[in-house]
Amino acid sequence: MGTFRLLHPDLVPQRRESVVHAASMLVRMGLDDTVLSASPVHRRLARVVLTSDVIEWKPGYAAGTPAHDERLGVVRVGGDRGGVLLSSILIAYLDVLENAARAGSSLTEDSWRTLLWAPTALFDHVLCRPRVGMTVVIPCPGAEHLPHERVLAGQRLYLALMQAVRFAVTGVVRALDDQALVEDCVTLATTCLRAAAVALEFASDGGLDGPPSPLIVETPEHRYLWRMISEVRAAVPRARFEQFAVALRRLNDVHTAGPLLVARG
Domain of life here (predicted)? Predict the structure, then answer.
């Protein structure tokens, strides 16, 4: 599957405005979230373009979990932060869809909807698009046996989605004077947390004869969420925080090695 470019954790965008240009460019190129419901041929072509130099990126950014990154073929980069964030998420989704099409999946239709809603929600948030729903195209079952590729695809998507969670949570604590934006940010964070849990389920969905999916170690995004929990609780209505907290607990229940327990306020 080759290497997978991911932002250095400290370079994850902190404001919606810093991602708008990249999102608009990807929309103009037909490489936004809608590409995930395109034909398999179109999706493969989109992946080729997204992994090219159409997005400015700079190598040489080591992260705090080098062994973990090495196991998953992750290369930490800088450059166009918004472009790298969005393209890494789309590439990871394209790899998951390709793997599912070739090797099948036991994920339910509801799980696929949860998984595929996150990129649409992200582009809606960044571009202030009206929410009009999405088209979910569930991959046709394949017969190949690709357990190693499945682990890589699922866990890479998990890591990319956790950066989207960090981006959204940062928006919560930076937009305290705009309650509508705060609630939109925490809703996006919750959506991406739910999708991240499904991504880990996909990573371990290799069948009884497949290898167990290794536990995800605590990432910088986990530690960031720990630091921000109190601020998120204080910034959003209780019901919205409870949804966020439940999604975080669910993620912890799936596979993560570092506990992400959330104290009830």
Answer: Bacteria
